[in-house]
Each structure stands twice: as structure tokens, then as C-alpha cells.
Amino acid sequence: MGIIVKKFGGSSVANVDRMKAVAKIIAKTKDQGHQCVVVVSAMGDHTDELIDLAHQISAHPSSRELDMLMTTGEQVSISLLAMTLQEMGYRAISLTGWQAGIETEEVYGKARITNIDTKRILHELEKDQIVIVAGFQGISNQEITTLGRGGSDTSAVALAAALHADVCEIYTDVEGVYTTDPRVVKNAKKLNEISYDEMLELANLGAVVLHPRSVENAKHHRVKLVVRSSFVDTPGTEIKEEKSMENVRVVTGVAYDLDVTRVQVVDLENKIDALADLFTTLANENINVDMIVTSDYEKDRINVSFSISDQDIGPTLKVLEKKLGEQAKVSHDHHLAKVSIVGAGMISNPGVAAKMFKILSDAGIPIHMVTTSEIKVSCLVPKTQAKQAVQVLHDAFELGQE
Ligand code: ADP
Ligand code: ASP
Ligand code: MG
């Protein structure tokens, strides 16, 4: 029988009892004759606690040392899970990211996986070991790197692709992918399946149930990906290629992202390459820019607004200060959040954005910025009204109904 990759998130391994419950799930698969590669995250909120510790020492800890610190979280959980399985009489071995051959770019905090050398894992599997790999981490030129918050999902999918696994199962604290975050909207509905493209949009737009790059990888390598609960034994949600365009939903889900800072650059000189120049500088510093709005209010001056992740504001201001100095006014605010609707059926249904704007305005929720793609519409709204926006959109697009 083939290889199965299973990934367990923080809440699934939050304490010793949870470790034992997870070990039973793994043991069952092993007993059925499969080879098991297991990816685990740090226990509970351990990663947050480690980051807190760092911030008690420094407001801006070095990114190298932060990665060194954060990766210890996964090292705790892999060894404990291996011990749990050994106590149950199974052969199990834990491997850190570098021991498992996970190579990344040399970027701290959000490295991409560049290659996986599967020799060691295959060698352990041949010895009939259950292989337990630390998620979220890799190695680049002998430096330990992390893949970005929530990155263990990406470790799991990348391993599944490299090992040609039969399936990659992401076990978490909800029963699958829902029409929106079931912790925010009580009548959110579990989806039996969702396309890679819709899932990728939802994940990129804030649905933390899957790390965006895990979906990207799964789509690229055609990995069979399933999200399911480690608490109850239900089938979960399969993420797969779109079946037929006939039964495509106009809106499949609603996502929100509170991690948004808007930056405004006012009075920038309107040269032909002004935007190219500004955004190339940000890209060179590895700053991910999301929404962008520009307006040329006079011939020779333009205003540019864009959104970034909260954590990037420090480096962004530094870069802009160095680049622009007194040439433009720069301001920023963190009081906004992004709320988005996603659905493959939008391509052939005009008026979806208009309906979204109407629903939000009827609820008294102002819209500060908008972006659209073929299958999504996103609005920046006040952070304090983001969850209300998710609820009214979910209701108005009737996503909770059978
Ligand atoms: P893990 O620790 O297992 O990686 P995460 O907290 O990263 O778990 O992801 C699971 C959480 O994702 C759920 O508890 C839920 O609140 C949140 N979530 C957000 N959007 C969705 C969605 N559309 N479907 C399911 N869960 C979602
Ligand atoms: N432990 C890491 C985090 O909290 C990685 C993960 O959970 O996927 O972000
Ligand atoms: Mg996660």
C-alpha cells in the first residue's frame, strides 16, 4: 500500500491527551498497512507564546533568531508524538525539517520550499518506521527557516507531492472547509468538496483553515487533499479540480482578514515609471502588497494607496522613507479589515460585486477599498465591523441553506 501524509495542527496536539488521540488515528492507518508520514505543528498556542517571549526582550527581534526560536515549538511536538507511538508499541521516529530534507529559500519568516530530498524519509519508511516531521520549518544554507504562520499545511502538501503520497490529510479542530469561519457564523455549512481555485482564493483572503501555499502546491502537483477533524471521525472536505461548470456556485464562501494595514502615499511625482519604481522597491524587500488603488488628481502628481500585512509596516515605512524622503506624504492605518466573497460562478454572473456593495451599505458598513478578480470581490471595511460584514454577506448570499 502507498504512503499517506497526515498533518495535525496545534489544537489537535495541544496536550498529552490530544497526543494520544492523534496517535490512535495514526496507528489505525498504520494497522491498515499504509506507510505513514506525519507532520505536526507546535502544541496549542506554543508558537504565539514563543513570539511573546521574544517581544519581551525586543520590539524588533532579529528574524533569524525568531525563526530559530519558533522552530523549537514543532521540535517539542514531534518528539512527544514519537514517544506516544513508541509507548503504544509502534516504531516511530521524529525528524526536524532539515533532517527530513526540506530545503527552502534563504528568507526568514516566510521562506518557500525549494526542494525536498526524500532519501532519509524513504529510508526510515523502509525500516517500517512511522515518520514524524516538524512542520513549518526548513533549511537554507545551513540556516533554519520558517514558512510563515500556518505553514505546517504547506510542509505536509510538499512532502505528499515529493513522496507521491496517495493522499494528504489535514486534521484540524473543525470538520472541514465551511462556507465561512464556523467560529464567526454559527450556521456556516460544511462543504463536501471545493475546487483548488476557490480554496486558494479563500485561503489567500484569510480562511486560515489551509495555508495558501499548501493549496497552491496541491493544485500544481495534483495532490489529493482532504481537510478533516482530529476530534470526530467524519469524512471532511476534499479539495479537487473543478468538476463541471454547470453546477458551479456563484458564491461559495466568505473570508475575512484582520491582518491588514493600509498605506497611503500622497503627492507622488507622476513619472511614467512611478508605480513600477515604487512597487519594485517594495518587492525587492520581500514586502507583499495586496490591494492597490491609484488616482492621478493632477497631471503631475498621483496618490497611491495599498494594503500590506500588519507585520510588514515597519520595513515598508523604512523603505518608503529611504526612497521618497520629502518627495511624498506617507501615512498608514490599521483600523481596516478585508472581507471577501469567493465563487467560481462569478465569471458568468454579472452584478455580484454590486450586490455585495448593496448588502454592506444596507448594513451601514462603509467600504474603503475594493479589488476584484474573476472569482472574488474583496472590500476593506472598518475592523470593528468585519465580522458583522461576514455574517450579513453569508446570510444575503444564502450560504447557510441546504
Ligand atoms: P490548525 O491549528 O489545525 O492548523 P487553524 O486554526 O490554523 O488550525 O485552522 C482551523 C481554523 O480555521 C478553524 O478553527 C476555523 O476557526 C478557521 N476557519 C476560517 N475560515 C474557515 C473556513 N472557511 N472553514 C473552516 N475553518 C475556517
Ligand atoms: N506552529 C506554526 C504556527 O503557529 C505553524 C503551524 O501551526 O502551521 O504558525
Ligand atoms: Mg493552521
Task: List the SSEs and their pairings.
Elements: E1 3-8, H1 16-31, E2 35-40, H2 46-57, H3 63-87, E3 92-95, E4 102-104, E5 113-116, H4 119-126, E6 130-134, E7 137-140, E8 143-146, H5 152-162, E9 167-172, E10 193-195, H6 196-204, H7 212-221, E11 225-229, E12 237-240, E13 253-257, E14 261-269, H8 274-284, E15 292-298, E16 301-308, H9 313-324, E17 329-333, E18 336-342, H10 352-362, E19 369-373, E20 376-382, H11 386-396
Helix pairs in contact: 1-3, 2-3, 5-7, 6-7
Bound small-molecule species:
adenosine-5'-diphosphate, aspartic acid, magnesium ion
Give the N-terminus to C-terminus distance in angstroms: 37 Å
What is the total domain count?
2
**Reported CATH architecture of the largest domain:** 3-Layer(aba) Sandwich
CATH superfamily of the largest domain: Acetylglutamate kinase-like
What is the total tally of β strands?
20
Rounded mean pLDDT score: 94
Main β sheet profile:
8 strands, mixed
**Approximately how much beta-strand content do the residues carry?**
25-35%
By DSSP (H or I, 4+ residues per run), the number of helices equals 11
- Return the CATH class of the largest domain: Alpha Beta
What gyration radius follows from the Cα positions, in whole Å?
Answer: 22 Å
Binned, the helix content reads 25-40%
Walk across the major sheet and give the strand order: 3-6-2-1-9-11-12-10
Sum up the overall morphology in one term: globular
CATH fold title of the largest domain: Carbamate kinase
